[in-house]
Amino acid sequence: MPDTSCQVLIKDPDDKSDSPCHSCIHALCTSGNYADESEACLAFDEAVNRSGLFKVWKEVRGEMNQPQPGNNIKSAYRIDRVLVPTQKLYDSGWTKGLIGVEIKRSNIKAGPPLSQMLDYLRCVWIAPGNIKVMLDYIFLFPLEKTAGTIASLMAQNCVGSCSLRYPEVSEWRRFEFFLGEQKLITHYLNKNRVEIGNLVVGNRTGSR
Length: 208
What we know:
By secondary structure, the protein is of the alpha+beta class. Helices cover 19% and strands 33% of the residues.
């Protein structure tokens, strides 16, 4: 189950009901039990290495390519991980390109890193060999699958959640990537089984 210890309820000022749960907002927080970012990075890197689905570039430097009006484009951009799909992932049905991952400790509000990730989607990243690349998606680890309005906004903006679920010894131990409520990648670490989900999500534009 996701860790909800840092959730807070914010009462709608126009809500006149007596119920504290009516028209409230839940603060979205990172999941798991990672005391600091180094512990979260260790768990993430171990899962990636076990999966064999990606080659990893760490601490990749970027440049803003599509600044919004008023943006300070002189800011330094650096993403924790860029994942390069391996043939194993393509053979499993993956049709997209590179993805990024931002890693945080557990039980912090997810809003600031998600905002950071939206900026990162408008950057180009300096790969080994000084090659500039862009990312199809960026995921926040550790964050459980989201739902409702925030999930729709995340999916449409190609930012998602990534987490490890179930105990390490469980046959259901999973390394999961979601875009909103849609599963993109699930790797059963103790079965070496890969499932690729909905790769069309996030492609729509214009009116709904």
